[in-house]
Amino acid sequence: MRNSPVLAGIAGLILFFSACGSEQGSALVTVKNDFNNPEMDFQPPWTICQSSYLGVEFGKIDLGQLSEEKEVSPGLDYVLMVAAWDDPSCAPEHCLPIASKNEEEVVDGQQREIDINLPNHQGPCPPEGVPPIPQQQYERILQLWPDYNFKPYDQRTENPQCQH
């Protein structure tokens, strides 16, 4: 078995994946509350009360504002949020769990702004044209922010804000 190309390929893959796992890297991310984007047909008055991306908390983001820039490990994830409709004070009865519609990706060394707006969000009781939030993202939001006492996934449309 002299210099088998298959063995050489396997050895190369092992070295490649070993190197990939040993360097975590980092990226710099900001999240923008872009719900008031004038290029959209409709500008929902959502205040982002809580936000998290790749396990890093980004906090409250007022309409039209950017979060602080945060360092995250490179990866692929949804932006998870609690948002209040037309209530910058974020009263719990005006809040709903929402997430970005797209899985957002950052790579090592990247500096990125993630815009959250009408086309890039999903929620528990969406209007026509907005996809419903998948159960996995909904459950993650419930774990991150239990103090909001959101209803279980199978009752998500019964959350108080869905009734307005």
Give the SSE map.
Blueprint: H1 5-22, E1 27-33, E2 46-53, E3 56-57, E4 70-72, E5 75-77, E6 79-85, E7 95-99, E8 104-106, E9 111-116, H2 135-144
Parallel strand pairs: 1-9
Antiparallel strand pairs: 1-4, 2-3, 2-6, 5-8, 6-7
Could you characterize the architecture of this molecule?
Helices cover 17% and strands 27% of the residues. The protein has 164 residues and is an alpha+beta fold. It has one domain. The strands form three sheets. It has a four-stranded antiparallel beta sheet with strand order 3-2-6-7, covered by helices on one side.
Sum this structure up briefly:
By secondary structure, the chain is α+β, with helices and mostly antiparallel strands. The chain has helices spanning 5-22, 135-144; strands at 27-33, 46-53, 56-57, 70-72, 75-77, 79-85, 95-99, 104-106, 111-116.
Instruction: Using the alpha-carbon principal axes, give the shape.
Output: globular
Number of helices: 2
Number of strands: 9
State the domain count: 1
Q: Could you state the oligomeric state of the chains shown?
A: single chain
- Tell me, rounded to a whole number, the average pLDDT: 88
One letter per element, helices H and strands E, the order comes to HEEEEEEEEEH
Largest sheet entry: 4 strands, antiparallel
What ranges have pLDDT less than 50 throughout 5 or more consecutive residues? 13-22
